[in-house]
Design brief:
OB fold (Dihydrolipoamide Acetyltransferase, E2P), single chain, 18 strands, BirA Bifunctional Protein, domain 2, 36% helix, 5-stranded mixed beta barrel, alpha+beta
Length: 497
């Protein structure tokens, strides 16, 4: 069996022969009159008329029989309203008595599976009922130098599929369908928010001081300003809140964010998220809006509200639960986070066999690790509420209990897929919490937030009561697809071989 290099060498020779004949191997234009979907939709009318059409596409299969070459041609077009997940194709027929002996030999000598071809001819149906374009002429549109894999469906190497995602999409219709669902997912989110009179905005990706999340940033160098900068870890949280200071009432942004952290089935280093900010609203109003938002985009994207996710049955149509943070931890980890010391928490983490990063370890990280252990028991959908101040540096304190904040997280299949709160708009309280976070950073906690002096100054000019919410949309989408997050990205970042 020939190697890839040997096959490529043969195709390079065909390419040189094609070019030496005076023909273009990669022309810029085509005279296509119909897509394959259009040709199949209007097949009866076109075939009865006897008019010539020009179709284009990739050769996916070739079968020779006497003086005839049968081709499977695929151009990626689809029949409107038909949910057929198979490749939509038409048969191409190159016959010696139609294109002449020289034309037939030239085709068989120069064309391979994988090449893009333009075929001019009439539409007809074979005796076997195969819809076909019988060629009167043809031309090369793009010569492929590498052969398409013969058994792509049987390829089990996920790394190889993701590395050559273009082939994964070409041969696996379900991957193409997933990409289309991604588009519906984001478009429906945008549609919903704009329908609620939220204004779409853009905020900086490069920041001097990162904020809006507990995460380790990517750091880069800004040569023109001669300073270090960071890729943002939230979708412009502190910037959008400055827009609330500026007088905007409702804003949202859909964009990319970057977190230089671990990689697993649920977490990625760069992904798309959404955040909205709503002046004169609190976290109760936020929960109502978010539940409505999720139901809207999920129904629009998937046509159902019932899912099996990570082995759990999740029905988004039912009444959403409310989970108290401290009560849930006490129930599953047998510890009172408000009364227990850090050494006792650490002992309990070890007893429960919970792995945790000992570098920069503190009470905030201890509580967070305990919670992540407990959340696996909650199928949702629901809202986690009454989180402690220690893990919520940007949320407003509860007016009745200053130990907790007005914060909510969306819980689905044992994990958080959304985070919101009544935003902290007290500049003195915010400065004190930033100071506390900065001390944690200096002690080694790289996920603690930086002190943002400019944001505190903006708050001193006054920000109205505001509800903010953010969701790592790609993570939510991966949950709904019940696939690892990396597999639901179109082109995930891959380590070079």
């Amino acid at each position: 069996m020939a190697t890839i290099d040997e096959l490529r060498k043969v195709r390079l020779e065909k390419l040189k022969s094609l070019q030496s004949s005076g023909l273009l191997a990669y022309p810029a234009t085509t005279k296509r009159t119909h897509s394959i979907a259009e040709g199949l939709t209007d097949f009866e009318e076109i075939s009865k008329s006897g008019k010539e059409v020009v179709l284009t596409g990739r050769i996916m299969a070739m079968r020779g029989h006497g003086g005839a070459m049968f081709l499977d041609i695929y151009d990626g077009s689809e029949l409107s309203g038909v949910g057929d997940r198979t490749l939509l194709k038409i048969q191409g027929l190159i016959k010696e008595d139609k294109v002449g002996p020289k034309g037939y030999k030239f085709f068989t000598d120069h064309f391979d599976i994988g090449d893009f071809v333009e075929i001019k001819g009439i539409l007809m149906e074979t005796k076997r009922g195969e819809k076909t374009i019988e060629a009167t002429d043809y031309k090369m549109l793009a010569k492929s130098l590498l052969p398409l894999p013969e058994k792509w469906h049987g390829l089990q190497d996920v790394e190889e599929r993701l590395r050559k995602r273009y082939l994964d999409i070409l041969f696996n219709p379900e991957v193409k369908e997933m990409i289309k669902k991604r588009a519906v997912f984001w478009n429906s989110m945008r549609e919903f928010l704009m329908g609620k009179n939220f204004l779409e905005v853009e905020t900086p990706i490069l920041e001097i001081t990162t904020g809006g999340a507990d995460a380790r940033p990517f750091t880069t160098r800004h040569n023109a300003l001669d300073l270090d900068a960071h890729l943002r870890i939230s979708i412009g949280e502190l910037w959008q809140k400055q827009l609330m200071v500026a007088g905007f009432e409702k804003t949202f942004e859909i964009g990319r964010l970057f977190r230089n952290e671990g990689m697993d089935a649920e977490h990625l280093q760069d992904f798309t998220g959404m955040e909205f900010y709503w002046a004169y609203a609190d976290y109760h109003m936020g929960m109502e809006l978010v539940e409505e938002l999720y139901k809207y985009i999920i129904q629009k994207t998937f046509g159902t509200l019932k899912f099996t996710i990570r082995g759990m049955e999740v029905d988004f149509a039912k009444k959403w639960e409310k989970y108290d943070y401290a009560t849930t931890i006490n129930k599953y980890a047998k510890i009172d986070i408000f009364e227990t010391s850090l050494p006792e928490m650490e002992k309990q983490l070890q007893k429960l066999k919970i792995d945790y990063d000992k570098k920069g370890f503190n009470k905030t990280r201890a509580i967070d690790n305990l919670w992540k252990y407990c959340r696996k028991n909650l199928s949702g959908p629901g809202f986690l509420i009454h989180l402690p101040v220690d893990v919520s540096p940007l949320a407003k304190r509860d007016e009745k209990n200053p130990k907790i904040v007005q914060r909510f997280q969306v819980i689905v299949a044992g994990s958080e897929v959304g985070n919101g709160y009544s935003e902290l708009n007290d500049p003195i309280d915010q400065a004190e919490r930033f100071t506390g976070q900065q001390k944690l950073r200096e002690a080694g906690d790289q996920e603690a937030q930086m002190f943002d002096k400019d944001f505190v100054e903006a708050l001193e000019y006054g920000m109205p009561p505001t509800c903010g919410f953010g969701v790592g949309g790609e993570r939510l989408f991966s949950f709904l697809m019940d696939k690892p997050a990396r597999e639901t990205q179109i082109f995930p970042l891959m380590k070079p071989r």
